[in-house]
Amino acid sequence: MTTPLNSATIGIQNGTGTMGLQVNYNADYLHNHMAVLLQNVNEGVMPVHYNLYRATSTPVPLAPGNLVTSLITGSSTSYSDTNGLVNGTRYYYALVSIWPDSMGSGPSNEASAIPLTGARMTLNPTELNLSVSMGSAILDTINIANPGGLNLSWNLFAQSDLLLSIPKEGNSDNASSDQALMFRADASGQSDAPPMLFGRGGPDGFGYSWIDSDEPGGPSYHWVDIVGRGQQITMANDANLGPYDMGFSFPFYGAVFDSLRICSNGWVSFTSTSTSAANVILPSSSAPQNLIAPFWDDLDPSAGGQVWYYSNADSAVVTWLGVPHRTTGGPYTVQVVLLATGGIYFNYLDVADPINSATIGIQNAARTTALQIVFNQAYVHDSLSVKIVNSWLTATPVLGVVAPGGNTNITVSCDATDLAVGTYTGSLLIYGLDQFHFLPLVTAPVTLHVTNVDAIGDGVSTPGRFELLQNYPNPFNPTTEIGFALPEKAHVSLDIYNVLGQKTRTLINADMEAGINFVTWNGADDAGSPVASGIYFYKLVADNNVIIKKMTLLK
Q1: For residue 152, what are the domain limits?
Q2: CA-CA 20 to 30 A from 74: which of 57, 397, 423, 424?
Q3: Of 482, 471, 485, whose CA–CA distance to 513 is shortest?
């Protein structure tokens, strides 16, 4: 009787039955004149080196013409092949072990890979250094190129830096800049924060920044007296009245408004009917949308004081005059001034304790972006002004995709409408990635030199200098007038550009005599078609002189 060979176990196992080596179990494996060696290989022989072979098809020939390298040491666990690869081609690899006796093993299993050159990002130029007259704007271009092998996806952020901040006098003892940014509110909402150390801040996510009249380079303190020439508004406690027409269109966080609402609790909004007296940190979904808060606290004009409103074609002013705190404290005489150009001023004529229980700042419609100046901190004082402006540095578009070998242009705008004479710095932060990895951050520094504007002339018929005037009206609909001055005869071009840097309309392209000239734009392109609402730039070129200014078309 023949014993079956497929019903046996062949192997070894330790004393606890936890480790073992099985050679065979219930399979046809044994035959006559056969030996099986079981040995501990922990002290086995390591290959001296490996030979790596490569081909563009399988199987990989183990031939000298396919040898990539024979210099991979026996202790290596990886190797990077950079020898003569063609981007996007599939390669197959096989490995052979070479032992101390110079004998080689059989080939390993084959592996394959497709090498791809990733996206790359280069800028031209790598930085901008520009000069502009105070009250004017200037455009320039930066080119993003992708010399790599994959699509480059990019995203851009324009960041305008602030001038060096200086601690306020009297607030530097036993305090640090970190302390100035930290606070803790108790259950009553009061803060134990130290006084504010700095008189400027921002920008927020949209580009708004602020600076006060105590800060070098800040605005001068100025109180706008509207009592008697504006409208007195009778307000109950926790009241919200409006809308009140402003007489102009006001840009705010990318939207445009022509009326506002006034809340008794020290804030205004273009849309919110809230009467909230419980101030919160900004941004917050609990705060009113489209918020402008010069002093958001629980104020009560029904218990004393007055609220006044005034507007003209250039500005709108809301004043809380001698309004007390709801429970105890105050009174407060504060105001907000909105300029048709988009600037915002908070003015504080007379404020009494408590001054550390208010929110001061602005917030957008989505309540996701805000510029907070103060939350429950002792900051305001008598005869203080705070100026809020949008960033002078913008760029468009802010995202895109560049194909391998391609490039795209970014239009950079530097607007000195609200800037004083001086030097300002900023950066364009450009993030890139391809389908496999993130690229290093690329930063393009931007320096803007704002220079003084001399008078156009001295009252004589021939202007004393080359100058481009701000269009009037601005914002406008449907037409606006643009003026410019030529001190001498020159070839003149006056063109309109959209925010993408695309030429929309040529108003002048001719030789002109010296003098002051005016031209009207009707809001149409060169084909006569009306253009969309938005921001436009008008560029005057006279021989080698160039000036650019910004205007807004509203429909």
Answers
A1: 122-162+392-451
A2: 57
A3: 485
The amino acid occupying position 507 is: L
Establish if 197 belongs to a structural domain.
no
Which of 353, 368, 389 terminates a domain? The answer is 389
The answer to whether residues 278 and 141 belong to one domain is no
Instruction: Return the amino acid letter for 294.
Output: P
Half-sphere exposure of 92 (CA within 13 A, CB side): 12
Kindly provide the residue ranges of all beta strands, DSSP E only, lying in 125-226, ordered along the sequence: 128-133, 137-145, 152-160, 200-201, 209-212
Question: Within a domain: residue 82?
Answer: yes
Which of 72, 96, 113 finishes a domain?
A: 113
Cα separation, 279 vs 291, whole angstroms: 12
Tens digit of each residue's pLDDT (9 = 90 or more) over 52-93 = 999 999 999 999 999 999 999 988 888 989 888 888 899 999
pLDDT of residue 372: 95
For position 300, what pLDDT does the model report? Answer: 96
pLDDT tens profile 97-131: 998 888 888 898 999 998 888 899 999 999 998 88
Burial class (CB in 10 A: 0-12, 13-18, 19+), 253: buried
Tell me, yes or no, whether 290 and 402 share the same domain.
Answer: no
Q: Which amino acid is at 491?
A: H
pLDDT band with cut points at 50, 70 and 90 for residue 494: very high
Based on the structure, what is the number of domains in the chain? 4
Asked if 388 and 208 count as a contact pair (C-beta separation under 8 A), the reply is: yes
Distance CA(62)–CA(45), nearest Å, equals 23
Alpha carbon distance 525, 502 (integer Å): 11
CB 96 within 8 A of CB 53: yes
Would residue 446 count as lying in a domain? yes
d(CA 175, CA 462): 58
CA 10 centroid distance within chain = 70
CATH code of the domain covering residue 537: 2.60.40.4070
pTM here is: 0.50
Pair 399, 355: CB distance under 8 Å: no
User: Is there a contact between 528 and 549 (Cβ–Cβ < 8 Å)?
Assistant: no
Whole-angstrom distance, CA of residue 497 vs CA of residue 535: 9
Kindly state the tokens that stand for 72: 């991979």
Q: Is 65 helix (H, G, I), strand (E, B) or coil?
A: helix
